[in-house]
Design brief:
463 residues; membrane (chains A, B); alpha/beta; transaminase activity (chains A, B); 20 strands; homodimer; 39% helix; seven-stranded mixed sheet; Laminin; globular; Aspartate Aminotransferase, domain 1; Aspartate Aminotransferase, domain 2
């Protein structure tokens, strides 16, 4: 072996080794930011492990779900699916179109997992109050202002914002505040709504049997009778259950309005113009789909009303959990980032397509009809938009179908009875905001029901 | 240069390079588990960045706090500290001993950051209900049973558990439920408490002016007068403000009790035996210090009462946020792990030492006195324990010091007036559960006040 060939071998080995060195060093440096992870690592790994559990697209595992004896997360399946990985369809299962569970937005948040998750430290905001003594995150308040400005659905300028445990808590906080800040000779306030109305207005107003206010039925009974009485009218726009853009009916001197705008988002309705009312309620549940987070907010013009609402929330629950506020902040920051339309495009596309499918199925039926909603100009999307409501408000047209709920129940569809909304049981509300599995099954069941009816009609006609 | 010395050089270089390679490869493999992090990485890094903000031990930065123009987190300083890193003491600052903000537990959670933090995915539990249709995490319910069994402060077997937005929400839920499930000829229920009492019992009961119940003052006014009337008595054990282990005072046929056991933990009192009452309330605020999480629970014996409480929480807020339940689960799992005493040791050590310091300072004073609490056997620690209450219940003994709050206020100490608790203003509550900075300052101010009084007395005596 001569000297040069010896050196050649060494130099090949060394070159190879140096190249490996460089690659390794690059790898280490490219991982520098993960190396920094210290106390967050355990929680991050736990979350990724649970998220990677396969549930066949018909369910998901959660961090606080049940686990197997081996410590593996157990899938929680969508309704009508079962089995360890949710791959088995439950035969003849009744589809749940009762609850307005906004699971149709879950895929959006799965697609945006990286930007929408939060790491809550064990020592995160343990105290009762924020630094300014309030119960409200200033950053979250700011992003809510920005959100409404972006969407153009509510004018928030020169108005107060407070938070509640869902708009649920704020409904009663508003009734309390308005009944204490409206002064007339009458001591008790009548609380009313236009039928069909969201049933919680009644049940919540009646819950504590207050001397100050009383649920007093439909607005239609009180038209032109509001001279000296105090009224609080719930105005729901778009209306739950029928999707109409309701307006206030009563206009007496001592009448006050609570605008429940839970569904006044581009997913569910064209937005003709920003609302600019004295008391408006919104909820995260229907905006981002996070119903489980129980986060709502009120936009209030009058300082005295705002103060009374704050008093109610303080004494009732002492504010909204700080981890919920942190999460709402993160989610809303995703909503208003970039071109500010990403989530709205996703949500509207789903809702519109579902409505079109239902309309098509029911268009051939004489037994059932659905609410007719107009196409309208939407200032947010800058175009005329057809309807895309959260619920189908179904009517059984046949004389004998007085109990429409049972007609549907017999076809394995669970809706919500008209009586719950203050109208006859000829009406049923069907939720179309649920998971895709739920909607697909609802669609199939309705299709079967309508086809069966049509073949009976054809058979009768051909006799 | 001869061949062997050339080869030697090459071999030295190659050996060095190979060693570097091996080290690099080891480094890469030791980082393997962090490399797996995918969608959780962004949130984890954000949380660690904020946590690493230096606030001189007198404050902390939060994920949802304000940021500088350069995007750097801004410290939120403890009271009486200021500056960008909380290193500046505010001169003549009034110390806040008003709020019972349990920040003394913050250091424990900072020490246990790794095991107590949670990663909440954007799609975590978006729906209204858990899989079983309830609003309650089964895993969390289980750990609460385990917790009480471990501590031995409450018998939960054969009882129902429900959750609320702090025990705050559950206080009124309990009043609602008991007034609806106790049947006597009297339609309205009298709600009472033994003075000094926690002021929310009164203000919350009066908030909605219900026809069903009415706050009716002190138990002492109703002793031996309970024959046909319906009573709900709040029994607070240990009592807020004075730390006594209160027992029920009224025992009529139609009298029901709500046991508020917020402070019935080994931090604040010896635990003589497990409570086994029909309706007991607890809160995370005073157990782990997470007051901002607004999480409480009720342990209820009677199914009808439990059902009514569930109805109240459903209609009032539709349950406790799912991210709060997830966090409570994580925190309580830390509490009951290992020898199950780690957090209790920490908490008791702090509270006991603070009480000893206050006792020592005030032992030399004739102007002020504090509640005297007995040492008792504690079944949890298996030893006789001296008191370690959450509050000092101070009395100004001098005839002229009728307004004890103002006496302290003049010495830059903010307490809470006796009148708030239904007694004379000769009493003031001082919170000793706040941050260490707050306590240190309180201690110093009290020391100054007592020393000043003593020197005046000495000067007068020597005249």
């Amino acid at each position: 072996m001569d000297m040069s060939s010896g050196n050649l071998n060494w130099s090949v080995c060394l070159s190879f080794s140096v190249i490996v060195n460089l690659i390794c060093i690059m790898l280490i440096f490219s991982n520098k930011h993960t190396e920094k992870l210290n106390w967050t690592r355990e929680a991050a790994i736990a979350a990724e492990n649970v998220a990677s559990t396969s549930c066949s697209g018909h369910g998901r595992a959660y961090l606080d779900g049940l686990i197997t004896e081996n410590g593996r997360p157990i899938c929680e399946c969508n309704a009508c699916y079962t089995g360890p990985d949710c791959s088995v369809i439950v035969p003849n299962c009744a589809v749940d179109a009762d609850s307005g569970n906004p699971m149709f937005l879950e895929p959006f948040w799965k697609q945006n997992a990286g930007s929408s998750s939060i790491m809550v430290a064990g020592w995160h905001r343990m105290g009762y109050e924020f630094e300014d003594g309030s119960l409200i995150s200033k950053q979250l308040e700011n992003v809510i202002h920005k959100l409404h400005e972006t969407v153009g659905n509510a004018n928030t300028s020169n108005k107060y914002i407070l938070f509640g445990s869902g708009s649920t808590q704020l409904l009663n906080a508003a009734v309390y505040a308005l009944s204490h800040t409206t002064y007339s000779s009458s001591s008790s306030t009548k609380v009313v709504a236009s039928a069909p109305y969201y049933p919680v207005y009644k049940s919540q107003t009646e819950l504590l049997d207050s001397k100050k206010y009383k649920f007093s039925g439909h607005t239609s009974s009180w038209r032109n009778k509001t001279r000296n009485d105090k009224f609080i009218e719930f105005v729901t726009c778009p209306n739950n259950p029928d999707g109409r853009l309701n307006k206030a009916v009563l206009h007496g001197k001592f009448t006050r309005h609570i605008y429940d705008l839970a569904y006044y988002w581009p997913h569910y309705t064209p937005i003709p113009a920003p609302m600019d009312e004295d008391l408006m309620l919104f909820t995260l549940s229907k905006l981002t789909g996070h119903a489980g987070s129980r986060f709502g907010w009120a936009i209030v013009k009058d300082k005295a009303v705002y103060d009374k609402m704050v008093e109610y929330v303080d004494l009732n629950t002492y504010g909204v959990p700080r981890e919920t506020q942190l999460r709402a902040l993160k989610l809303l920051n995703v909503v208003v980032r970039g071109d500010k339309k990403e989530m709205f495009r996703f949500a509207h596309t789903v809702m519109r397509s579902r409505w079109e499918k239902l309309t098509e199925i029911l268009s051939t039926s004489k037994r059932f009809s659905m609410e007719q909603l107009p196409s309208q100009h939407c200032a947010f999307s800058k175009q005329v938009r057809p309807p895309s409501p959260a619920f189908a408000w179904l009517k059984c047209e046949a004389d004998e179908d007085k109990d429409c709920f049972n007609v549907l129940r017999a076809a394995n569809i669970i809706g919500r009875k008209g009586a719950v909304f203050g109208v006859e049981n000829r009406y049923v509300r069907l939720s179309i905001v649920n998971s895709r599995d739920d909607f697909d099954l609802l669609q199939q069941r309705l299709q079967d029901l309508v086809s069966k009816d049509r073949s009976i009609v054809q058979a009768v006609t051909s006799l």
